[in-house]
Every structure is written in C-alpha cells, then in structure tokens.
Design goal:
Blueprint lengths: L5 H6 L7 E4 L3 E5 L7 E7 L6 H5 L2 H17 L7 E4 L15 E5 L10
Bound molecules: guanosine-5'-monophosphate and zinc ion.
Length: 115
Amino acid sequence: MDNDCLFCRIVAGEIPATVVHETATTLAFRDIDPKAPVHVLVIPKAHHGDVLALARDPQAAAEVLAASAEVAQAEGLTADGFRLIFNTGRHSGQEVFHVHAHVLGGRPLGPMVSG
Ligand code: 5GP
Ligand code: ZN
C-alpha cells in the first residue's frame, strides 16, 4: 500500500467509498463526480500507477477486466452498451495515479473524445 495514494487508502478502508463490487484482488466503487448515470471505477487492490504498469502484471490486468465486465453486467449496461476508459498520463488528464478503469454508461455517451 502507498500511504500517499487516494485509492490505496480507499482499499484500506481509510477513506469511504460506495463499493459496488469486490473480489480478493479488485475493488469497484462509484465515482465521486459521476460523468454519466453509471460511473464506476474498477481498480486492482495492489498499487499500479497506470495501465502501462498494470499490463506488466497480466493476471491483475485480467482480473480488472473481468471485474469491469461484471460491474457492467450488474449495472445493467450490457444491452445498450457502455464505455471502458483507462486515462493514462498527461494528455489524458489522468488525476489519480492508481490505475482505474472507468465504467461509464446509462445514456448515449456521445463522441469518443471532445474537440
Ligand atoms: P482520472 O482523471 O485519474 O482518470 O480519474 C480519477 C477519477 O477519480 C475522477 O473521475 C474523480 O471524480 C474520481 N475521484 C477523485 N477522488 C475521488 C474520491 O475520493 N472518491 C471517489 N469515489 N472518486 C474519486
Ligand atoms: Zn494506490
């Protein structure tokens, strides 16, 4: 655990979150500032800074992907579709450097990127 990492602190229970799905190695909770009717963040419990780091641990990457699919199913998103986003680095606007998949859906999501 990284004591300076917001999402490690959520995993540790030090900061509250609305958890919607949990496995031995992953946690999924609602985004504090939702950008769509459903906006859930899916993280590995172990600290990886971004998706580049996560990809170096294929088992953890697969677990995050599987958990994201289960969240999409449980949130009722699979019929109409949804978006799965890993913001990575400066151009993406990544703000929290503990890798997280954004699961977004519940309405048409518009163009893939703005501008
Ligand atoms: P990023 O820009 O790094 O891809 O996304 C970070 C996300 O974390 C943002 O959508 C932001 O709203 C969310 N977020 C930031 N702080 C908190 C928090 O304390 N709790 C929860 N649940 N989400 C947070
Ligand atoms: Zn962390």
